[in-house]
Design brief:
This protein has about 110 residues and is mainly β. Helix content is about 0%, strand content about 55%. The strands form 2 sheets. Strands 2, 4, 5, 6, 9, 10 and 11 form a 7-stranded mixed β-sheet that branches. Strands 1-3-8-7 form a 4-stranded antiparallel β-sheet, with no helix packed on it. A hairpin with a 6-residue loop joins strand 4 and strand 5. It is globular, with a radius of gyration of 13 Å. The termini are far apart.
Length: about 110
């Protein structure tokens, strides 16, 4: 069965850091484009960062220089290291896997207090 499970969210003060993890199972993780999206209340879901099967990364302008996406294909896990967090980063963060399938996790809440 295909699964993505996010973890690592929580409450952090402005300027703090968090690391999100996305554990994958049921598909060939290493061959998939992996991405982090986020959705704040009343706002459309937006792409935060993506990493290709070959390790090429792409970031939203709003997180460049603060967030780092990475993947460990041996562990079937993707990460998002978030530094210098701002209140506007508050959202539910979702991981996504896309190639032959389009798979979404259930999301993890990140709340940044000012």
């Amino acid at each position: 069965q295909v699964h993505l499970v996010e973890s690592g969210g929580g409450l952090v003060q402005s300027g703090g850091s968090l690391r999100l993890s996305c554990a994958a199972s049921g598909f060939t993780f290493g061959s998939y484009l992996m991405s982090w999206y986020r959705q704040a209340p009343g706002v459309e879901r937006e792409l935060v960062a993506a990493i290709s099967s070959g390790g090429i990364t792409n970031y939203a302008d709003s997180v460049k220089g603060r967030f780092t996406i990475s993947r460990d294909n041996d562990k079937n896990t993707m990460y998002l290291k978030m530094n210098s967090l701002k209140p506007e980063d508050t959202a539910v963060y979702f991981c996504n896997a896309r190639r032959f399938l389009d798979v979404w996790g259930q999301g993890t809440q990140v709340t940044v207090s000012s």
